[in-house]
Amino acid sequence: MKIIIIFIVVLFLSTVFIVYAQDDCPMNDQFLSNDALSSSISFFSNLWEKSGTSNPSFYPTFSPFFIEEGFSPESFINSGGSPEKSALCFIKHYPDIFKLDNPDEELEVVQVTEDDVVGYTHVKLNRIFKGIPVFASQLIIHFNQEGQVSSFNGNYHRSFTISLESTLSADEAIKIAKKDAGSPAKKVATGLLIYPKQQSYLLSWGVDYAQSDGPTLGYIIDAHTGEVLFKDPGIRTAGGALADRTPPLKEKSAMYVLLGFIVLLIAIFIGWRVFKK
Q1: Which of 63, 105, 167, 204 could pair with 195 as two cysteines, CB 3.0-4.6 Å apart?
Q2: Which DSSP symbol is given to 78?
Q3: Are the beta carbons of 98 and 141 closer than 8 angstroms?
Q4: Pick from 92, 120, 95: nearest CA to 41
Q5: Which CATH class is domain 170-232?
Q6: What phi, psi does 149 have (nearest 5°)?
Q7: Does the model's pTM come out above 0.85?
Q8: Coil, strand or helix: which one is 151?
């Protein structure tokens, strides 16, 4: 019985290590070299240079860019073990295009969808800074029927750094939203955001203010000055500054690991009781 318990523990820990500890990004020889992609890399470099004067990290809207055949190998969608990991592998393989120092820490996979009609898979990633979302900053990677990266689009910002020390508290941000709304709320949600404005990045509070007798108003409030930087009037059914913040997929994976660990503990306890008898 002791041997069985030890085997179960080792098997579980090995599985967790394989899934979460290793780098699943194969630098496949089928990737085109930077020389072969020099024209594409030059195109994106020019976009970066033209995107801003005082702050080159500002990026213009990333219109759908359809990639020449061979940008990634066929069946690349399976190379990382999942579409979301493969998308991150693709981004990490071309740092000269995406201008991110650490995509694993600066992008958050929030959605993976499959189009049954044309057989395409779409991976949506939000731009984050130390876990805090960058407002309206997103990148989408598209895989075709052969599993190749066929295009990508979005509107996001390259690597940057700012202080995350807030002068304004969440309660103070709520008071500012309440004063602007002029009516009581039945529910309020808050969270830190990074708001790009005029070639700079501002630490801000996102406030979803659900009015008692009206739509949910969405506010983005400067976390230092208290200025209302953005207001969503909530005309849509589900308005709000934070309403589009989809929970990251990695939280789901972490939940499965926790459940697996609990099951393991139960199995060990049962095994111990049986052995004791």
Answers
A1: 204
A2: G
A3: no
A4: 95
A5: alpha beta
A6: -70, 115
A7: no
A8: strand
